[in-house]
Amino acid sequence: MSFGPGDPLYATPPQQPSGGARSTRNRAIAIGLSAAVVAGLAVFGTYMVLETSEAKENRSSGSAGQDDKPSGGDSGDTGGAIAGLKSWDAAELGRNHSAGDVDYPMTPPVGGDHHPSWLNCDGDVYEKAVPNVNAVHSLEHGAVWVTYSAKAAEGDVAKLAERVRSTPFTLMSPYAGQEGAITLSAWGKQVTVDSADDRRVDQFFAQYVQGPQTPEPGAPCTGGLPTVPQ
């Protein structure tokens, strides 16, 4: 049997794509894959932006709710700015030791020259007024000084005394010359409140007991004067 040129066996074999065609096809595939990756990243980025925005909105809503609470309540938030806080430039407050009295420009004092001996401030509650010059030395060590006048309610005084006794680097004493009922003082910082339940009490303790305002971090609150000097 013979086969002619028209027989299927003599059909022209399929042509293989040339090198140029393969290169064009590979480039097209690469471009397509890149476009898909970019699109996926864009979708993911949009999702993350939406999630972040929603989280910020939720936090803002929560903060707004806390700000609506009365100032006398305890919101549980001890951060943020303290309403009515007074501050003095620490660089302008003297830190020299003085054996005599010192004339302080604020009442109670929040810093300045002071006696070489500090008052013990390891949760110490003094029943009588203490000398400014010794208490200021305690502030230099990072203590918070709680003072109260006759305007303070007995229940608030008792509650603050309990708080001080359980908090190292604090001290408490009566102070007849102050204007407000209750004053909290640290080195260069002071705030006046009317109640022991005022949220600013928690804020002040959290931010200024051995806080960043402390001129002598690491200095002790023990080993000083255990009682009020006569």
Explain the overall architecture.
With 230 residues, the protein is α/β, with parallel strands linked by helices. The chain is 35% helix and 11% strand. The protein is built from 4 helices and 6 strands, in the order H-E-E-H-E-H-E-E-E-H. It has helices spanning 19-67, 132-140, 154-165, 199-208, and strands at residues 86-87, 122-125, 144-148, 170-174, 182-186, 189-193.
What is the structure about, briefly put?
The protein is an alpha/beta fold and 230 residues long. It has four helices and six strands, in the order H-E-E-H-E-H-E-E-E-H.
SSE layout and pairing:
Layout (H helix, E strand, L loop, with lengths): L18 H49 L18 E2 L34 E4 L6 H9 L3 E5 L5 H12 L4 E5 L7 E5 L2 E5 L5 H10 L22
Parallel strand pairs: 2-4, 3-4
Antiparallel strand pairs: 1-6, 3-5, 5-6
The helix/strand class is alpha/beta
Q: How far apart are the first and last residues' alpha carbons, in Å?
A: 138 Å
Query: How would you spell out the order of helices and strands?
Result: HEEHEHEEEH
What's the total number of strands?
Answer: 6
Q: Helix coverage percent of residues?
A: 25-40%
Low-confidence stretches: 8-14, 53-75
The 3D shape can be described as elongated
Widest sheet: strand ordering:
1-6-5-3-4-2
Rounded average pLDDT: 80
Strand content: 5-15%
Largest sheet, strands/sense/barrel: 6 strands, mixed
What is the helix tally?
Answer: 4
- Overall radius of gyration: 37 Å
